[in-house]
């Protein structure tokens, strides 16, 4: 995702901020015209606060803190409005609670709701008879219950969709998009701690010829078996991604070039000796260590250039990338 794109969480939170302003601003005007200055000023302050919060989200893209602040503003606004204007404002409790489940996690929303009701009930209890109190409690409980169920299901579905979008369907490892996220993550860590990180790009030798001779089903089986061989050799902290048709990338954080080269050679030997699909399958590899101030694109290109040299040097070999300083 580029810096100009907005995540789903940003869009939802910004939309709720805008909806809040559009819903509350008219009441601020009406109350000012009716000389209800206390609540009018309060509504105006809320609108300005929400606008500032929306601008904060838009420019910083830091939504974790903003979502908590938003939730506290919403709850405080409703409780203050009910306290100043009386029981008739209780209807605002419903959209306020619903909005929580869109902004924060279901568990956090439940905790905030419990705290909210703990404060709200003593405020409205003296103004309600027993029938009104029971009706309010039951309808609020039903609203919270369905919001929680919907939020949980939505979160589960969202996680599933994210997983699908980042996974290669054939080999069940990360795809190119997942690789891009991982490389950006490592680069951000590298800026702070200057850790050693390496990546290995590997390509199956003469894979097109294998497909043409034995068929795509055999080719797919080779890709799957190759994935299993590599996965057993790399660490849990390493990442394996399918970069292209028969091209894979191994990302190795906290790894020096010397160690990455050893791993690359071991993987090359494992593939050569396994006789995948009863064929003499071999791979060529390029290894590159991340250089300070280097972009993800340049990092991958250096490894890819090393792979290209390996291909031109007879295949079934590992080459190290040129290590030129950047900036």
Outline of this structure?
With 327 residues, this protein is α+β, with helices and mostly antiparallel strands. The protein folds into 2 domains: 8-165, no CATH class; 176-320, 2-Layer Sandwich (Alpha-Beta Plaits).
Question: What can you tell me about this protein's structure?
Answer:
The protein is an alpha+beta fold. 67% of the residues lie in helices and 8% in strands. It has 2 domains: 8-165, no CATH class; 176-320, 2-Layer Sandwich (Alpha-Beta Plaits), CATH 3.30.70. The chain has helices at residues 8-33, 37-60, 63-85, 93-103, 106-124, 130-165, 176-193, 207-214, 216-233, 257-274, 296-312, and strands spanning 198-204, 239-242, 247-252, 283-289, 318-320. Strands 2-3-1-4-5 form a 5-stranded mixed β-sheet, sandwiched between helices. Strand 2 and strand 3 form a beta hairpin. The radius of gyration is 29 Å and the shape is elongated. Mean pLDDT is 88; it is low at 1-5.
């Amino acid at each position: 995702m580029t810096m100009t794109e907005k995540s789903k969480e940003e869009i939802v939170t910004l939309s709720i901020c805008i909806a809040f302003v559009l819903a509350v601003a008219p009441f601020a005007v009406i109350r000012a015209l009716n000389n209800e200055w206390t609540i009018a000023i309060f509504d105006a302050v809320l609108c300005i606060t929400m606008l500032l919060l929306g601008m904060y989200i838009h420019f910083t893209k830091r939504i974790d803190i903003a979502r908590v602040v938003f939730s506290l503003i919403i709850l405080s606004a409703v409780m203050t409005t009910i306290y100043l204007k009386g029981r008739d404002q209780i209807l605002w409790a419903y959209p306020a609670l619903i909005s929580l489940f869109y902004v924060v996690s279901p568990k956090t929303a439940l905790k905030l709701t419990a705290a909210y009701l703990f404060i709200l009930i003593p405020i409205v209890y003296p103004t309600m008879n027993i029938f009104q109190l029971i009706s309010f409690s039951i309808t609020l409980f039903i609203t919270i219950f369905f919001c929680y169920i919907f939020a949980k299901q939505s979160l589960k579905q969202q996680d599933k969709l994210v997983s699908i979008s980042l996974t290669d369907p054939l080999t069940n490892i990360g795809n190119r998009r997942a690789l891009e996220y991982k490389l950006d993550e490592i680069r951000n860590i590298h800026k702070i701690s200057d850790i050693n990180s390496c990546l290995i790009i590997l390509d199956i030798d003469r894979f097109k010829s294998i497909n043409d001779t034995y068929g795509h089903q055999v080719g797919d089986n080779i890709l799957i078996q190759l994935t299993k061989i590599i996965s057993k050799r790399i660490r849990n902290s390493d990442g394996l991604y399918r970069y292209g048709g028969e091209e894979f990338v191994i990302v190795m954080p906290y790894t020096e070039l010397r160690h990455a080269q050893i791993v690359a050679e071991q993987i090359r030997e494992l593939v050569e000796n396994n006789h995948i699909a009863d064929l003499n399958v071999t791979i060529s590899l390029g290894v590159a260590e991340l250089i300070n101030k280097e972009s993800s694109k340049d990092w991958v290109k250096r490894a890819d250039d090393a792979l290209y040299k390996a291909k031109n040097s007879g295949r079934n070999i590992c080459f190290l990338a040129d290590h030129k300083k950047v900036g």
